[in-house]
Write a structure and sequence with these properties.
Number of helices: 5
CATH topology: Glutathione S-transferase Yfyf (Class Pi), Chain A, domain 2
Radius of gyration: 16 Å
Helix content: 55-70%
CATH architecture: Up-down Bundle
Shape: flat
Largest sheet: none
Distance between the termini: 19 Å
Strand content: under 5%
Structural class: mainly alpha
Number of strands: 0
Number of domains: 1
Order of helices and strands: HHHHH
Length: 111
């Protein structure tokens, strides 16, 4: 539980980031170890499903702030499989040019 601090207090931001970081690590580990695991090509096994597209949307948001997913090898492999789809680059061109590229030199908090 995040402690109750006054609005605008730097402790609020620090506590919120620490809480969110731990939650993100927990869920990324579940995704990496159990949902994708060492043998699934896609989230639901060998078949590409809506779960893969939805998951890729959430995971690639981390690219805006340059999150390092190397601690999650199954997730990294899965994301590479998704990005290898023939329509990935064209479909996500606006995301990378308008949301990732403009912030490439901005400082961000990571996991």
């Amino acid at each position: 539980m995040i402690p109750n601090y006054r609005y605008g207090d730097d402790k609020v931001q620090s506590a919120t980031l620490a809480h969110a970081r731990e939650k993100a690590k927990k869920w990324l580990k579940i995704l990496d170890d159990y949902m994708i695991g060492p043998s699934n090509v896609f989230v639901c096994g060998g078949q590409l499903t809506l779960a893969d597209f939805m998951g890729a949307c959430y995971i690639t948001l981390g690219e805006v702030i340059r999150l390092d997913h190397s601690s999650y090898p199954n997730l990294t492999r899965w994301l590479e499989n998704i990005k290898a789809l023939p329509y990935w680059a064209e479909t996500n061109e606006a995301f990378y040019s308008h949301f990732v590229a403009p912030f490439k030199d901005s400082p961000f908090e990571g996991l």
